[in-house]
Amino acid sequence: MDKKYQVVGIGNALVDVLAPCDDAFLTDNGVEKGIMQLIDTGRAAELYDLMGPAQEVSGGSAANTIAGIAVLGDRTAYVGKVKADKLGDVFERDIRAQGADFEVPRSPTCSADGTGRCMVLVTPDSERSMNTYLGVSEHLGPDDIDPVMMADAEWLYLEGYRFDGDLSHAAFAKAIASCKDAGGKVSVTLSDPFCVERHHQAFSDMIRDHVDLLFCNEHEMAAMYPAATLEKSIAEAASHLEIVACTLGANGAYVVHGGETVLAPAEARSVVDVTGAGDLFAAGFLHGLVNGYDMMICGRMGCVAAGEIISHIGARPEADLGALFAEKGLQ
């Protein structure tokens, strides 16, 4: 019998707050242009109040992936921590509107931290200056994991950024045990090479003992498996993983499975904003995987989805991904 969910994602639950501004606004308010910086509760409240009219959508790396899978019609759920506040309402309403289930208990209004947010200031030159407040999302713990939901998932998709929270390690362990005991499989995205360096041993142990599918880009792969060449790094990863999917930017993606390696070509699109490219690659790939396509088709679906995302600002598709796959003869 089919499980209730094809993919359940676990990671940060953030609201992306996108607003246009000019360079003077950045200077006047001490925002460093073109980078991502982590900020605290006070700074988050101050900057949020200063921003002009903004678009607010549910975000976070794994949440973007789950949203992408959900809009393709697959059965999905998301687990991330939000507060019982206005932005918590935004996150819950938006992720559900994509078609994903979201049933995580919210942090109470008395909590000192608010719902996490990434405030993205976009200047006329299309440069994005990001100020990220993790808020209650970094307190995701084992109490937020429903073992029944985990057991009812064909695949888990775990966000590497959550390795920065000690409670989240225990949350991942609980989710993995429930999923694996019920015959499910586990995937993880490495998220960022610096995240890998901070938690290398924890990543290594989890991947070796529990992970079936690894998502990463070439820089994250090199951080996780240092070797003389990328090909040797990938070979080391593949020696103890069922599937490895390593993206190469404009050069496509390597996919290794069953001792065979394929190179899925990149989708030629004009690059406006690369934010979310890896998230949507994973969405396209997992969509192909849970629907029974071969590794080349899965890789190509990932590349098409990533190509769509980099063609505009924001980490949610503006085009119909299913229609794009059909145009490419992928479904």
Topology of this protein?
Layout: E1 5-10, E2 14-20, H1 23-28, E3 36-38, H2 41-50, E4 55-59, H3 61-71, E5 76-79, H4 86-97, E6 116-122, E7 128-133, H5 147-151, E8 153-159, H6 166-181, E9 185-189, H7 193-198, H8 200-210, E10 213-217, H9 218-224, H10 230-238, E11 243-247, E12 253-257, E13 260-264, H11 277-290, H12 295-309, H13 321-327
Parallel strand pairs: 1-5, 1-8, 2-6, 3-7, 8-9, 9-10, 10-11
Antiparallel strand pairs: 2-4, 6-7, 11-12, 12-13
3D structure, described in words:
This protein is of the alpha/beta class and 331 residues long. It has a domain at 13-60 and 85-134: Adenosine kinase, small domain (2-Layer Sandwich). It is built from 13 helices and 13 strands. The chain has an 8-stranded mixed beta sheet with strand order 5-1-8-9-10-11-12-13, with helices on both faces. The chain has a 5-stranded mixed beta sheet with strand order 3-7-6-2-4. Strand 6 and strand 7 form a beta hairpin. Helix 3 (61-71) packs across helix 11 (277-290). The longest helix has 16 residues, at 166-181. It is globular. It starts with a strand and ends with a helix.
What does this entry show, briefly?
The protein is α/β, with parallel strands linked by helices and 331 residues long. The protein has helices spanning 23-28, 41-50, 61-71, 86-97, 147-151, 166-181, 193-198, 200-210, 218-224, 230-238, 277-290, 295-309, 321-327, and strands spanning 5-10, 14-20, 36-38, 55-59, 76-79, 116-122, 128-133, 153-159, 185-189, 213-217, 243-247, 253-257, 260-264. The chain has a domain at 13-60 and 85-134: Adenosine kinase, small domain, CATH 3.30.1110.10.
